[in-house]
Here is the input.
Amino acid sequence: MKVLSRPLPLKKILFSVPILVFLIAAYFVCVESVFAQATPSDVLSRRAQLEAELSNIEKDIEAQRKILVEKQREGVSLERDIAILDAEISKAKLSIKARTIAVKNLEEDIGQKSRTIGTLSDKIDREIASLAQLLRKTDEIDSSSLIEVILTNGSISEFFADVDAFESIKSNLNDSIGAVKADKEDTEREKKDLEEKKAEEVALRQIQELEQKRLVQKEVEKQKILKATKGKEKEYQAVLKSKEKSAASIRSELFTLQGSKAIPFEKALELANRVLAKTGVRPAFLLGIIAEESNLGQNVGTGNWKADMKAPRDTEPFLKITAALGLDPDKMPVSKKAWYGYGGAMGPAQFIPSTWVGFQDRIASLTGHNPPNPWEPEDAFMAAGIYLSDNGASTKIPKDERYAALCYLAGCKNAKKSSYAFYGDDVMELATKYQRQIDILSGVASR
Here is the structure.
């Protein structure tokens, strides 16, 4: 049997409204308390300490950079090259320290963003619950007859006083709803900022790993030189001469690119020259980028799209890319996911699927391959060339190329941050190496 509920007396309704208002006000006080606790003085002090340490490290890095520039201007000698290696090793160690601090700061920012999002979400839930309760009570009083309402009050004057108070509260409902919407917008902004900071942290950790590998290589190179020469200049010059590459040795050097047989240097250079003709990007610089990303196609990844890609951002476009090419998605190699972020980059140029789909039409128009294939060397080279050209590399000016390289890594918004400098420096060093080889092939002196 259905039982009809009797409408609540207006006085009881009105009595509950101030309590709700009080609870909401008390909640705001609690929220402010949470925010205050999220940044205590010891946290701020620690951050200031890290910033000061970072500033000192950056000064030391700049000092090592100046040493490098000065030594590189000197003639080739054992002392000079050992000094360069020492400066590069010191600079790398300092950069690793600086990047560790940058990552710590980011971790703190990410933690703060996460707490803020949690607080705002809770706040929205509480406000909505309070508004829902108030609206239910409003509905109850609106559904009561005038006679019933008057009879529940002691006097007519009391009735009108209560009605005025209630109507006043009702008129503020729109403001409260507006506040909920504003909190929701704030939460969405915080979430977007959080995603950007997480992406930045991933990029920094990638550079960290790369720089640590380069540091080990430099240490090994230094020890090899010292062991081979035993500190004697004459022996060192002999070592240099034996290591000097000829045009014939360069032509026999192999760039193993995924999706093709072993390609001689001249073939790889031919692909880079096609990109030059279409985009204006210097071949040596393009080879530097591809070398940094995948060791010229040798390391295109051993990951799997299901385990390593971010879903659905990259998984959905990946399935469309492979379907259009008639490829089995389960058999196509992608970069593995690191512990600190997502993988899923494809082919020699290491494009992630969600980025690749935005370039497909332009790649197809320049290579004639429709749809283009991220694992096919020519399409991969062209994709990288288009991206680099879009960000200024077509001028062939070193500073513009370096900026484009940093955009390639982590977006142009991070290109001027000192913590990303290593990637740009490394690409330019590789570009110098390839330019020297290209000059030898073309008969240009390369000293």
